C-alpha cells in the first residue's frame, strides 16, 4: 500500500512513534492489521532481517475443533454417568409405588448403553483434555482466545441446563411422593457432576481473566484423578448391576425364549377362538413363529389338555428376576413348563429392548 508506506517513511523521519502512526492511520479508516503489516515491511527493509513467524500455535478453526471434540466427549460421559447413577439409585432404593414389573429389561438396556458411552467417551475426553492443556501451556496467549472462551461458556450453559433439568425431574418425583432418600441421592449425583464441570472450567476462565497467567498443572491433575475415580466407581457399579457380557447374552437368550413362548401362546389363543374352542395338536400347525430354542435349536415342548388348558416348556439358563417377570412368565433356572389357559389369555411378558438392537 504505497499511501501508507509514503506516510510511514515521512512520519518516521520526524521521529513519530509507532503507536501514534497506528492511531492516526486507524482514525483515517485504515485497519490496524494493514498498518502493522506496513510497519513490518518498513523494519524488515531497515534492518535487512526478515521478521520471524511463530509456528505451531495453530489456527482458530483447529482450536475450535479441539474444544468441540473435548466438550462433546465431556457431555457424553457425564450425561451417561448421571443416567446410570439414576438407574442404580432406583434399583438400590426401590420404591414399589414408582416401580413397574415391566421396566427391568428397559433399565438393563439403558444401563448397558450408559456403560458403553462412559467406557468410550471418558478416555477420549482425558486424551483431548491433555492435548488442550499442553497446547495452552506451550502457547499462553491462547488463554485469552475468543474461541476458547466462547466454547467454554457454551459448555457451561449446557451443563447448567442439564443440571436444572435433572434437578427438576428429581424434585418432581419427590413432590409426587417418591421416598426422600432417592431424591437426595439423585440430587447429590447432579450436584457432583455439574459442580465438577463448573468448578473446573468456570474457575479456570475466571483465573485466567484475573491474572492472565496459566494455572499450574496440579489443578488439571487433581481434576483428572477425581474424575477417573468417579468413573471407575460408576463402571464397577454398572457391571455389578448388568453383569458380564456373557451373563447379558445368557439373559438375552432366556428373554428370547419367553418372548417366543408368549407369541406361541397368542397363536394358540387365536386358534382356540377360531376353531370352536379347539387347541392345536402340535406346534407345527402354527406358522410364522419360532418353534425352537434360539441357542440349542431344540424344539419347544407343547402339551394340550382339556378345556383350553395347555403347557409349553423350555430350558432356561438363569432364573428370572423376581422384580421383572410378571406371572405366569416367571421361571426358575433349568427345565420349566408354563401352564396356560387359552380361554383366559395371559399377560404379556416384559418387552426386552435388547432383542431389537439399538
Query: Approximately how much beta-strand content do the residues carry?
Result: 5-15%
Order of helices and strands: HHHHHHHHHEEE
Principal-axis shape equals: elongated
Please, how many domains? Answer: 3
Q: Which spans have pLDDT < 50 for at least 5 consecutive residues?
A: 353-358
Give the biggest beta sheet.
3 strands, antiparallel
Structural class: mainly alpha
- Radius of gyration, in Å, reads 33 Å
The strand line-up of the biggest sheet is 1-2-3
Q: What is the tally of beta strands?
A: 3
- Count of helical segments? 9
How far apart the termini lie comes to 62 Å
**Helicity, in percent?**
55-70%
Average per-residue pLDDT, rounded, comes to 81
